[in-house]
Amino acid sequence: MQKTPIALNLTPPTTRGPRGKPPRHFVDLTPEQRVAAVTELGEKPFRAKQLATHYFTHLTSDPEAMTDLPKATRDRLVEKLFPELLTAVRTMKADGGTTVKTLWHMFDGAKVESVLMRYPNRSTLCVSSQAGCGMACPFCATGQMGLTRNLSTAEIVEQVRRAARSLADGEIPGGPTRLSNLVFMGMGEPLANYKAVMETVRTLVAPTPDGLGMSARNITVSTVGLVPAITRLTNEGIPVTLAVSLHAPDDELRDSLIPINTRYSVDQTLDAAYHYFEVTGRRVSIEYALIKDMNDHAWRADMLGTKLNARGRGWVHCNPIPLNPTPGSIWTASDPAVEREFVARLRAHGIPTTVRDTRGSDIDGACGQLAAEEQGE
Per UniProt, where does [4Fe-4S] cluster bind (predicted)? Predict the structure, then answer.
């Protein structure tokens, strides 16, 4: 197959949008910095814990709900420490209301999306870490938008807090519940916004009231294969699940599907992923979007199985994903029979394989589609 040259933007933005970086938010601060911030505003240090309890335990930044603080005090603290960072401008629902996709406008007009999915035994939020994406993968709606900017820690956490509050309030069918799982598989390449993503993870796993008290094992961080960042994540000592968006087992094809592969090859990416397993003991997920007549050949399933087994057994789980096509795209999902054969070949190699649930396909479920549609308009 002839390689298609694709422009690749790997340089992070020097500013966070046309108006500079987002205003300082309570979430951007460490517990010690929160104490300093309320003290600088003339309040007693214990106010920081009260604010943290409201935000992380009661999931609110509404001053009217903070009845344990004097009204003048809470109004002033919220005004200074809880600026409005994102506004829901469009919401779409599917699966009887248990899948909810939200298009957010950030403080500077940047657009991101998140998808909340409730299952019988868990609730999962797919969160965005960047507005747009610089990886330029041609089958991805977000990749075709280009990179607008990185999100701040608070902008990411706010997506999580809003989803958790929606679940707690019983807005999703099935009654009130908790947010149990988080996946960084929304818009953007998480490891290209490494600092904010890791600060978000630390905030999410911190015990209440300093954080949301989530389990690190229920948080998945995905990447298209930024090898140095995978190595850095390996050394963090936080047992999140690593997911590698591979999509092809051979460099010739992956160079076209995932342009960063021209810098970090399939073997380099898999070596880094295997090292993550060796150090953390956490099984790695291999994400593989099945694209009709492009990467869904049975021989490529055999090649993938061979490459994964060459590094060891029991270290990986493969998730083939029927491609959620974008409007007007030449890329489309594999035929069901081809998908079944691909899965069978992987399983024949002893690779645990689960076809990924394709929730939200009727509401432009692939992240970036709503934002791209609005940008086009």
Answer: 133, 137, 140
